[in-house]
Amino acid sequence: MRVPVEWLYELCDPGLDVKALEERLTMTGTKVEAVHHHGVGALERFVVGRVLSAERHPDADRLSVCVVEVGEAEPAQIVCGAPNVAAGQTVAVARPGAVMPDGTKLKAAKLRGVVSDGMILAEDEVAIGTDHDGIMVLENGARPGTPLQDVLPIATAVLELEITPNRPDCLGVYGVARELHAATGAPLAPPPWAEDPGSAGAVEGAEIVVEAGDVNPRFTARVFEDVSIGPSPWWLKARLMAAGMRPINNVVDITNYVMLLAGHPLHAFDLDRVAGGRLVIRRARDGEQVQTLDGQVRTLDSEMLVIDDAEGPTSIAGVMGGARSEVQPDTARVLMEVASWDGPNIHRTSQRLALRSEASGRFEKGLAPEQAMEAQVLATRLMIDLCGARVAPGTIDAGPWSRSEHPAPVVRLRERRVEDLLGRAIARERQAEILRALEFGVSDADDGLDVAVPAFRRKDVSREADLVEEVARIDGLEKLPATLPKRRGAYGVLSREQRLRRRALDALIGRGAFEIVGWSFTNRVLPGRLRLPDGDPRAHPVVLENPMSEEHAVLRTTLLGSLLDAARHNQSRGNQDLRLVECGTVYLERPGEALPHEHRALGGLLTGRVAPPSWGTPQPPLADVFAAKALLGAALDAVRTPWGAQAAPQPFLHPGRSARVLVAGEDVGWFGELHPLVARAWDLEAASVFEVDLDRVLPHAVGEPHYADLTSFPALRQDIAVALAEDVPAARVLEVVRGAGGRLLADVRVFDLYRGEQVGEGRKSIALALTFRAGDRTLTDEDAEPLRAKIVAALASELGGELRG
């Protein structure tokens, strides 16, 4: 929400500069996202002028050469293109050096050979309106040379506030002023709806029928006769423009102004265009259509609300008015509607129609029915003052809501409870002062205060802890001491899965990786960018019904997307050598079931060099499939999970440089080098990646480690080379060797691979280093010989291996 500071200070002026104001509001819970400057700069260069003469330009029919008195010794010569400029007018003038709303600095210039020493201004040129058809003609009371800011609101600071969903009262400038009053103690102006020029009772010539009272508890309306449609005064236009709204005409501008000030939307109907003079609030029929003010035809369903007349729907209730009954230049009678709607219903309607409006954004957060008449009273005053309207006797107040049936709830605030929750005592008198400033009703109780919650805070404050929060934030959260909460013997432990997940991440971080935390939501196009085929379950993510944006419209089916996004972000900022890991949840659609399958995954990504350059290795190797395997292996070994790998393709991995991860014979993940086309989609040259399903890995982790005694006896190493068929994986060879080697085989590893004429076509030779060790003696070749023979025999019988050499 945009709040012009000039408007805010008219209601509550604490005498703070903008920076101090920003800090005070933010520290008391009304966060200021940004401060903008609206209007012109170099204010001393904007003055009131009087046109002494206006003659046609000698070389341009549409230009006038004006002599303008600007309060200096000599009048200024200004060339003006406005058709309405004339001698005797009091006008707004920008002198050379003035800074226009778009940041342009005005200079003296020649227009068709005639020097122009400034500019006579239209309202859009000082950002107080949108009209550019002619210059502004001011009232004659201001003397030439008077600073223009003394006559027109041509510049103001604007606060951009982040209003949380529980505080719709701060979506009105008066609500923000109330917060400022409580935070600073500065006087607060009386509510602008305090005096009602209207009256109660029936209204002749208009009828309201509420058929959907469960979602429309209150509907108020007043009729205004003899309405004169025209432009709004400049002060009103300026405030709307600063708040981010475009002026249209006085009636429409009044509805927007009241909404911005009171925080409650309202809508003006041309009563003569309401067929039958009767409005019915009902649920729409499936497929029913209405043309809204933006010119679009919307198709409705039976959960949405419409306001209709004798000819059908005229508005989508709480979201947007209809084109058929909107205020026109010839409108003479206006029916002003201020209603209360069910927030969730308005939110659903807005989302289903993809139609967001200033009104729906307020209604969906839950406005109290009591607030409807506040906006109605304020609108009545402005209609009389700015439109010359005559308010017809009576006020329609329809719907099932009744003030007598909804008294203000009273919550006890105990003095001791405030101290317990905050860690410091706050005097009861100070508590009462804060709550009264926020318009809570306060009365003394034996152990504290009885607090009546105002209507506009009813959905936010319902218990004692809520009141403690109000007292704490206004008194100053920075005053609270740093204390530990009372534990009273409470304790907690990590589950086995949590401990193992942390152990795996610690192992990766210990090897130089950085942990990232990505969104669980991603873009619909991610499966296509990863080249996932239609038959792959990961190609069909769960679609969110209410996404934050198109970039977060579906649930992720892999961690790879967020890892690649983080890699691109880092590489675009010069970080080329990356080791990124993430542990998070991924989601897979389950056909026929309401909820998707969720599992915790561990993923990693490496780009660039595997180690920093040094004098010994000035060109370290780049991250490849083996680097990804090693990093993944570090995590799996840290949780003591036996695992293996087998060559297997993935659509997003490089053919021939990828593998699947096996735990207890089950496929639990993959690793490999990124496919060049996928890497290119993220502006990467190359990357190595891995991902495993931790929910399937961790059940196989060895929970209780077994330690072997250290031995001082040396190991015995023997090397063998075995010729095998080309399609036998090395992992299978190691598995067979370990099974046959027995307890004295301490280790086995592959140290060479040979293909050539000596082993024949379609075969390969794998060289293995066998390490034997005993804990009680030094082994000899005679001890190892039977084990070696057993290993060779197993390789021959199970894999068709032939010992070489």
Structure in a nutshell:
The chain has 805 residues and is of the alpha+beta class. Strands 27-30-31-35-34-33-32 form a seven-stranded mixed sheet. Strands 3, 4, 5, 6, 9 and 10 form a six-stranded antiparallel sheet that branches.
How would you describe this protein?
This protein has 805 residues and is of the alpha+beta class. The strands form 10 sheets. Strands 27-30-31-35-34-33-32 form a 7-stranded mixed sheet. The model has no long low-confidence stretch (mean pLDDT 92).
Q: Unreliable runs, pLDDT <50, ≥5 residues?
A: none
**Major sheet, described briefly?**
7 strands, mixed
The helix-and-strand class reads: alpha+beta
The helix fraction, in percent, is 10-25%
In what order do the strands lie side by side in the largest sheet?
27-30-31-35-34-33-32
Overall morphology? elongated
Query: Helix count?
Result: 19
Task: Quickly list its features.
single chain; 805 residues; alpha+beta; seven-stranded mixed beta sheet; six-stranded antiparallel beta sheet; 19 helices
Annotate the secondary structure layout:
Elements (H helix, E strand, L loop, with lengths): L1 E3 H7 L6 H10 L3 E9 L6 E12 L2 E10 L6 E5 L9 E5 L14 E3 L2 E3 L2 E2 L16 E2 L16 E8 L10 H12 L22 E4 L7 E8 L8 H9 L7 H13 L4 E4 L7 E6 L5 E3 L5 E3 L5 E5 L2 E5 L3 E2 L12 E7 L2 H11 L4 H6 L7 H17 L2 E2 L4 E3 L11 E5 H8 L5 H10 L3 E5 L2 E5 L11 H12 L20 H15 L3 E2 L5 E2 L3 H4 L24 E2 L4 H12 L6 E11 L8 E11 L17 H14 L5 E4 L5 E11 L2 E9 L1 H6 L6 E6 H4 L18 E10 L4 H12 L3 E10 L8 E10 L8 H19 L2 E3 L1
Parallel strand pairs: 12-15, 27-30
Antiparallel strand pairs: 1-11, 2-11, 3-4, 3-6, 4-5, 6-9, 6-10, 7-8, 13-21, 13-22, 13-23, 14-21, 15-18, 16-17, 18-19, 19-20, 24-26, 25-26, 28-29, 30-31, 31-35, 32-33, 33-34, 34-35, 36-38, 36-39, 37-38
Helix pairs in contact: 1-3, 3-10, 4-5, 5-8, 9-11, 10-11, 12-15, 18-19
